[in-house]
Amino acid sequence: AGEGSPIPFPSVDLVGKRARRMAQAQDPRQAAEMVRMLQEHCIQARTALEANPNDHTALAKWGEVLLELSMLKQGEEAVALIMQSIEKLEKSLDIMPDNHNALVVLASALNARAFLQQDPTVAQELFNEAKKNCLKALELEPTNQRYKQLLEAMEDAPQLHAQLMAQIQTQGGGAGAPKPEGDDEWFYDMLGWGILLVGGVAV
């Protein structure tokens, strides 16, 4: 069916806030429980798609959960989860192009991927793509303040990326997924996750 069936995922607001707190607290047991719960939601989405491969809602939810899961991972594993998130969200939008919520989650995932690039040209291309998706979401929902906040944050993204790369160079960081030490809140907010998750955007 075109709309797909709803899946009982928790809201981004609740999961996102808890995931960030657990990541910051670095409580292994709590973090493991959050990972387990998010993985269960991925299984639910996969099951829904086996029943209906065109379930754009399940695809969007899967992409959203993968983005949240990436918050609890580091390095190549976090990068892989972001890439999978983008893939699921793009498939969802291929089926339902005017899903403004999915567009915003995709914009945030692309923004996250951009910040994990050390090549400024590659990062800028991803920032541009993220902004394009956010603008389209705003065209569909012109009064949505959370979308406007995310778009405003994206205006500063290239400058923040340059600052991050300079910090990594100063610290002697190498290739991979950069992550400043001791300031996870700043890092997540830079990626756009702060606005996405605290704002409570739900697909």
From TrEMBL:
This entry carries the following GO cellular component terms, namely: mitochondrial outer membrane translocase complex
Q: Which UniProt keywords apply?
A: Membrane, Mitochondrion, Protein transport, Transmembrane, Transmembrane helix, Transport
Membrane topology field = Single-pass membrane protein
Q: Where in the cell is it found?
A: Membrane; Mitochondrion membrane
Q: Which domain of life is it from?
A: Eukaryota
Any single biological process term in GO: protein transport
Chief localisation class: membrane
Would I find Mitochondrion among this entry's keywords?
A: yes
Q: InterPro entries under this entry?
A: TOM20_imprt_rcpt, TPR-like_helical_dom_sf
Keyword Mitochondrion included in the entry's annotation: yes
> PANTHER family from the xrefs?
MITOCHONDRIAL IMPORT RECEPTOR SUBUNIT TOM20-1-RELATED
Its biological function? Central component of the receptor complex responsible for the recognition and translocation of cytosolically synthesized mitochondrial preproteins. Together with TOM22 functions as the transit peptide receptor at the surface of the mitochondrion outer membrane and facilitates the movement of preproteins into the translocation pore.
Q: What is this protein called?
A: Uncharacterized protein
Q: Which organism is it from?
A: Hemiselmis tepida
